[in-house]
Amino acid sequence: MILESTEALKKRLEGAAKLENDSFQVTAPAAFHGEITDDLVETAVFAKDKAAKAGARFAIRAAAGAQGIQPASIHDLYSAMGRQELSGLTVPAMNIRGLSYDTARAFYRAANKLDCGAFIFEIARTEMNYTSQRPSEYVAVMLAAALREGFSGPVFVQGDHFQASAKGYSADPAKEIDGLKAAIDEAVAAGFYNIDIDSSTLVNLERPDIKAQQRDNAEVCAILAKYIRQAEPADETISIGGEIGEVGAHNSTVEEFRAFMAQFTTLYGQDDGIGKISVQTGTSHGGVVLPDGSVAKVKLDFNVLSSISAVARKEYGLGGTVQHGASTLPDEAFHQFPAHGACEVHLATGFQNLVYDHAMLPKDFKEHVYAHLAQSCAGERKDGETAEQFYYKTRKKGFGGDLKREWWGLSREIREAIGSDLEKKFSFLIEQLKVKKSRATVARYVKPGRPKASMRAELSAL
Question: CA dist 446 to 79, 90, 233, 235, 399, Å?
Fold first, then answer.
């Protein structure tokens, strides 16, 4: 139920909490494990009344904070890996593109059962646009899902691929960097205390030596890392990631990593720079789609992860390597990530595929989404591309805009069936990535700040 006024919001909160301007007092914590949170999150996402929308987001953050649920940085956990005090686990970083509340709830159910505390919810700059999920909303939904499922503890929300455009940087470097700084400001204000800088798009392999190839990447990464340190809250050290090889290009090498780090460290300094490094191992985002719509098998070089992770920890104190584009890999591959020193793995398309291909998703609804894609993404269709290839490539864009409300409006029976299978998938990943029973480990290293929820901040984000 969408609450379209602050008075309706206050009335819905009666018996559970008292809301008044910037004051929020929880009177019945258990009430937020029920349908009241469903109404709050729907209002936070869809209310037309700005005050009601902001009030719902404020209520979610305040109620979550009262129950020990708060946005946090994973920086100190990765620092422990860099000091080699901690090893043998890989943190799943999950891009939630659609059915976000139901999907996050499914993850928290799995996390509660398996005592998992090491996880990241993330969204890339491009995904924010085509899925219609700005940072303030995304954080509110992730916190609401935790509240609804009775999860307690730090919630790590990450800005994925805060990416420099090679074309934009070539035309006007200052303008391109200013755009990324503005994105950082919005994300940090919302509670994104983990940000992956992706200036690997600026790597120029046509230059004569590795140092020159990585120069622009290192320079822009250092500029943005310094900016993040200036923008972060006083009680949080934001986890920052760098990247040396664009996903889908040639596999990364130790020499490239050292060339990048030598330049980055000179420009940035020694302390609290990046805490992890994304590398290319042979994957691509979403996988390579064959004409029949199936995904080609990937030959992933795990030695890239292990060799660069070893150098990252021993020589630079980083948590290790990050693997992108992994969710469409075969199930038997996932246990390899902790075995080869990856500190983090990014997962997105596999969850999306489970939703789109689920037996309970009505055929006419899927056809409706595809009809929308055929029109809105017509310019992306390549010559010789089959319908299966086109829809597989573009269906990530079928969750936003006007379709977003329709996904949320699917029946409870459908959403619960999809959520049940997502929960099984999340449970499998938690087991394979060795983050089962990781809550105590997270609690030992991560001491979140206590950001105060603010109605004024929620209004300014709209």
Answer: 10, 16, 15, 12, 33
Quickly tell me which residue has 């299966």 as its tokens: 388
Range 303-306, long-range pairs (CB < 8 A, 24+ positions): 303/340, 304/251, 304/252, 304/253, 304/279, 304/280, 305/279, 305/281, 305/337, 305/340, 305/341, 305/342, 306/340, 306/341
DSSP 377: T
**229: which residues sit within 8 A by CB, 6+ positions away?**
238, 272
Angle formed at CA 29 by CA 26 and CA 35, multiple of 5 degrees: 105
Q: Which residues of the chain have pLDDT under 70?
A: 246-249, 283-298
At residue 325, the pLDDT reads: 80
Q: Round to whole Å and give the CA distance between 341 and 319.
A: 9
Beta bridge partners of 28: none
CA–CA distance, 221 with 438 (Å, rounded to integer): 30
DSSP, residue by residue, 255-271: HHHHHHHHHHHHHH-SS
Distance of CA 210 to the CA centre of its chain: 30
176: tokens are 């391109």
Q: Which residues pair with 196 in a beta bridge?
A: 241
Q: Rounded to an integer, what distance in angstroms lies between the CA atom of residue 283 and that of residue 245?
A: 11
Question: Do 322 and 343 form a contact (C-beta atoms < 8 A)?
Answer: yes
- Give long-range contacts, CB 8 A cutoff, 24+ apart: 414-421: 414/360, 414/361, 414/362, 415/99, 415/102, 416/102, 417/358, 417/360, 418/99, 418/102, 418/354, 418/355, 418/358, 418/360, 418/361, 419/102, 419/103, 419/105, 419/106, 420/106, 421/354, 421/358
Alpha helices by DSSP H, 91-243: 100-114, 125-130, 135-149, 166-171, 173-190, 210-231
- Ordered structural domains, the chain, with CATH: 6-66 (no CATH), 72-355+410-460 (3.20.20.70), 362-408 (no CATH)
**Could you tell me which residues are beta bridge partners of residue 157?**
121
pTM of the model: 0.94
In angstroms, the CA 129 to CA 333 distance is: 31
Helix (H, G, I), strand (E, B) or coil at 246: coil
Instruction: Return the residue matching tokens 């390579």.
Output: 288
Dist. CA 282–CA 251, nearest whole Å = 6
Spatial separation of the C-alpha atoms in residues 127 and 132, rounded to whole Å: 8
Tens digit of each residue's pLDDT (9 = 90 or more) over 335-371:
999 999 999 999 999 999 999 999 999 999 999 999 9
> In Å, how far are 124, 275, 279 from 195, measured between CA atoms?
10, 10, 16
